[in-house]
Amino acid sequence: MPKALYPGSFDPITYGHIDVLVRAKKLFRPLIVAVVENPRKTPLFSVEERKRLVEEALREVGIGDVGVITYSGLLIECAKSLGVDVIVRGLRATSDFDYEFQLALTNRDLDSDVETVFLMTAGKYSFLSSSIVKEVARYGGDVSKFVPKCVERALKDKYHSKYHS
Ligand code: ADP
Asked: In a mutational test of the pocket of ligand 1, which residue from 31, 42, 96 has the highest number of ligand atoms less than 8 Å from its CB?
């Protein structure tokens, strides 16, 4: 089976990410989740916290046999250093398309041996994003349908300590 990398911010991981991951697991082995330390974004969770939440979430939903790493710098360099054949990205509605198209073609230009494969999420998660989850959690809304319990707890702790310290 081809070896694949599933990169992203995962700030935090949601059931949308997990849905894509389950689909990717059927097609690629090994599958490695790469949590990016992106200096362009100001994440809610540190890269180590995000990695830990991915690991805990996968344990909680019973998905094994997936590597989780962190990386900074160019995605294609990370892919090359791991010797992966494929970069997996998830697609939601058309809003993802422009950015994903640009990213995939740039990566192909940098290394034509690594293919980007897009997987579509289940319809029920097609509106779901980490940003929306954070927005709901910030105001105390119920995010249990969107994220595993460990992530829900981490969001509560984060927003509690942010606003009550
Ligand atoms: P990035 O900052 O790299 O876009 P994200 O964590 O937001 O990182 O997303 C990582 C990947 O997962 C992207 O390809 C994104 O389109 C995909 N993704 C995020 N949420 C969903 C979802 N609800 N359904 C399908 N794919 C998703």
From this structure: 96
- Residues that are catalytic: 17, 41, 92, 130
In this structure, is the dihedral angle defined by the CA atoms of residues 102, 106, 72 and 153, taken in order, positive or negative?
Answer: positive
164 CA → ligand 1 middle, Å: 30
- The number of domains in the chain is 1
Q: What type of residue sits at position 104? A: A
Q: What is the CATH number of the domain that holds 139?
A: 3.40.50.620
From residue 31, give the alpha-carbon distance in Å to each of 20, 64, 116, 136, 137. 12, 10, 14, 30, 30
pTM of the model: 0.93
Task: Provide the residue range defining the domain that includes 19.
Answer: 4-163
Spell out the per-residue pLDDT of the chain, length 165, in tens: 999 999 999 999 999 999 999 999 999 999 999 999 977 779 999 999 999 999 999 999 999 999 999 999 999 999 999 999 999 999 987 778 888 899 999 999 998 899 999 999 999 999 999 999 999 999 999 999 999 999 999 999 999 876 665
